[in-house]
Amino acid sequence: MPLSHTPPNLFSYRKYWAHRFGIAPQLPMSRAEMDELGWDSCDIIIVSGDAYVDHPSFGMALIGRMLEAQGFRVGMIAQPDWTSAKDFQQLGKPNLFFGVTGGNMDSMVNRYTSDKKIRSNDAYTPNGEAGKRPDRTVSVYAHRCREAFKDVPIIIGGIEASLRRIAHYDYWSDTVKKSVLMDSKADLLVFGNAERAIVEIAHRLAKGEKVQDLKFIRGTAHFIKEIPADFAVKDSTDFDKLGAIAPPVNPYQEEPPCDKSETENAGEITITPLIQNIKVLREKTAIRLPAYETVKNDPIFYAHASRVMHSETNPYNARPLIQKHGDREVWINPPPIPLTMPEMDAVFDLPYSRLPHKSYGNANIPAFEMIQHSVNIMRGCFGGCSFCSITEHEGRIIQSRSEDSIIKEIETIRDTSPAFTGHISDLGGPTANMYRLACKDKSIESACRKLSCVYPGICPNLNTDHSSLIKLYRRARGLKGIKKIFIASGLRYDLAVESPEYVKELVTHHVGGYLKIAPEHTEKNVLSRMMKPGMGTYDRFKEMFDRFSKEAGKEQYLIPYFIAAHPATTDEDMLQLALWLKRNGFRADQVQAFLPSPMSIATAMYHSGKDTLKKVTRDAPNIHIPKNMKQRRLHKAFLRYHDPANWVLLRQALKDMGRADLIGNGKHHLIPNFQPANNETAPTKAQIFRTKFTGFDKNKPKSRNRK
Q: What confidence score (pLDDT) does residue 279 get?
């Protein structure tokens, strides 16, 4: 049978017998806590690279409480000593399986900067202590679990496993690595939002099924010995050729809006003329990606595999993928079906203590301090930014909670958090303003293969009505005891400008003086490879922001964020961005350089040197890739043109570029021609404009800051 589009409700399963033990105040991390609960063993043990914080923003807690709600006894092992199996044995042998996750971040992204330098802290560790998790945490933990109890099934998940489910480029080793399912030697990999898959897996194992029999579950990857008899296999190069994309569907190029008649037949594969049902035909066809050995040694085939994988991300039309690794076959099932609103409500209504585990005492966990008074209102993102991994993990279909559920959580924070002062730090998620936004036509949404609903422009089939979000904001800030609600999640200003009423609501009531947004760049050459809107949209939003701030009698500022060294970025692009920053009075305090995360579209560009948003051919033009550290430092220096420590590097670069006219002491110059004796010492006020810590030029007229 084809994979179901109507899975059972998450909470419709019959509870496992162990539910009689009741709800744990916090999931146990020691045998002593298990004894207090009356447990002789755990059914499931979750091992995580993060400290255990019993809050729905932490994946280990959400999955743990989800499994507890199914009746299972769930134990936690957080940040164990990975140099031996001892810590992995501390809760005893789990009856069903080990669940292994690297934590809320990929362990390599967590530990290393974009310049491959080791970070000095870890926000997910008590007191921010660094070095409490190994590199490639998922694989290391999985091996230790196997050493601890050889015959216990191991299920890996979380974002680290999710983004490494197929052969992927690894920035830190500058190689293409195998699927993490291979490297970890786990039994099963769960990717994306894991609730549906992990609940089904737990109940089936509890009924006595073997982990080797758990095949073809949405949102999972596993090994197969042979292709199922009822599946046809089509080679990926048959419909995404290395040189041309078979019409009519190319989800990367700038196409007209989704059309039901076109998308419904997208990627049609004919096995026999007798089969008429296109949907069934698609669902019973698997796509064979180039083998690991091929993509490892050929960047063009790697780019091709990336394109195919990204075209199979809509859960309603995605087909299984197969990738050979040596003599083994990895089968990647289609993504999970999004949760319904009642299911989302129930997941966030589980009995979280909303606190770090008691064993941490008074230790500060920075990530918890940041989110303890924030509320997640939705999941997913249909923005499709090429450098971002949200879509690969959470999907592009927005999953929203009900207004009542969100209000209930705010009231819980107000009534139970000992540190609450009346301020909600965020109502958001991956984006601030995609709450309850969706395609106007479910049948079009189910057939569409576009990677973005907002690039190169907003799809006419997308509902951009912000009224539900406005209503939520008004109700939330009207609650007794709530002094202020801030919006800190990333704002899609290209959507916001479609609703001036929303912008007014946001600016008038939910900005604390500064609002951070992310144009990412100013130059079309780069923005087109990022799949981001042009600066004209930014200007429209800024005009609204300034106008509504003035009407509210508030002095408020936009803080734009930019990325340096993104694929296709040239030195000239960064120079133009620096000149834009100077003209607009911005001086960035912190800057971000592109980090090639596993599986992202931009990472395929970085590795292959080709624009993978267009046809990938061996003779296609190369795009500029800022790879060497010297150039990456230069691009970051352009973002901080005002820092004396960067002036020596920038002077030489400007001379090499033939732009020595930008060196001098006038207001129109980018950098001065003098150098302080100590580069760490800021120039005097007479030499260069001073700035506040906010990044704005203090001495420029306010009218200049509001253009």
A: 56
